[in-house]
Amino acid sequence: DAAINRIAAGEVVERPASAVKELIENAIDAGATRVAIEIADGGKTLIRVTDDGCGIATADLPLALSRHATSKIDGSDLLNIHTFGFRGEALPSLGAVGRLTITSRVPGADAAQIQVAGGTMSAVKPAALRAGTVVELRDLFFATPARLKFMRTDRAETQAIADTVKRLAMAEPSVTFTLRDVSGGGEGRVTFRADRENGDLFNALHARLARVIGREFAENALQIDATREGIRLYGYAALPTYSRGAAVAQYLFVNGRPVRDKMLTGALRAAYFDFLSRDRHPAAALFIDCDPTLVDVNVHPAKSEVRFRDPGVARGLIVSALRHALAEAGH
Ligand code: ADP
Ligand code: MG
């Protein structure tokens, strides 16, 4: 089983940033309003995610580390997925490739802790924690030296983690995120912070995008909100004057998940085609929400690609909604 976990882990956990993504998604699934991420040495020696979510009951701690144990889906409904998690793969995978410690507390009970390293689980023991969950992952890939070699420099991995945190922060404006680099020990330094935004969907999102992408983007962004055949597209797309030399400011989400998808970025490009020269890229943060049965998120274990049942509808919606907004703005 440890070997199977290590193989699966290679799929789920490609690098420290993918571990960070899984842990933040678990925190959000748990209803957290605050998520604090600490990393050291590009996440290679330490990733710690602390949340104030619902916690894991002591009796469920060993289960959370078992393969395909998920509290989020009953297995009969793989196409109808509302939470981030549904495979029950992340924690066992992380426990197979690093030293994982989970400390958690549900309201009205005492806190408990479990450890797993290289696939070997410890007994559950009492712990001290006020509320929520702390997941600590040390020495990622220590058990799989071959994968260690594929990690990039601390700087590059730190950058990838920051990018992951920012994307998830855009999708959850009502959650407070902090990212702290504790390399070298001590308090470390906060490298990213976004306090919870209040207000309605668009106010909160606009404020969060100003925080994450930048004030200039927010000031040049057109509000988008359009629905076609059960698919809703909303968010902000920047005026062509705020385009970029690289596709660095394109953030796309499907049912709240950050995705990188050629069809969607192609549609974005097509919408701006008349207004941008070949070497300029539109900037946008766009959310596509639809019934989970209309889109397949099972394409890749890292869950970043999507397959729409009818790609033409999604593409047409993006192109027409953005062209309409650009036209309204005088383009
Ligand atoms: P999945 O998210 O696909 O269910 P994971 O391996 O990521 O699988 O997590 C296994 C289970 O552990 C989850 O279904 C959930 O019940 C529990 N869990 C993990 N992280 C947290 C957390 N931060 N807060 C509360 N429960 C958690
Ligand atoms: Mg998960």
Q: Could you characterize the architecture of this molecule?
A:
- This is DNA mismatch repair protein MutL.
- One of its GO terms (molecular function) is ATP binding.
- Belongs to the DNA mismatch repair MutL/HexB family.
- Keywords: DNA damage, DNA repair.
- This protein is an alpha+beta fold.
- It folds into two domains: about 1-195, Histidine kinase-like ATPase, C-terminal domain (Heat Shock Protein 90), CATH 3.30.565; about 210-330, Ribosomal Protein S5, domain 2 (2-Layer Sandwich).
- Helix content is about 30%, strand content about 25%.
- It has ten helices and 16 strands.
- The strands form three sheets. Strands 1, 2, 3, 4, 5, 6, 7, 8 and 9 form a nine-stranded mixed β-sheet that branches. It has a five-stranded mixed β-sheet with strand order 10-11-14-12-13, sandwiched between helices.
- Strand 4 (about 110-115) and strand 5 (about 120) form a beta hairpin.
- Helix 1 (about 1-10) packs across helix 4 and helix 9 (about 260-270) packs parallel to helix 10 (about 310-330).
- The N and C termini lie far apart (about 60 Å).
- Bound molecules: adenosine-5'-diphosphate and magnesium ion.
- Magnesium ion binds near residues 22, 25 and 26.
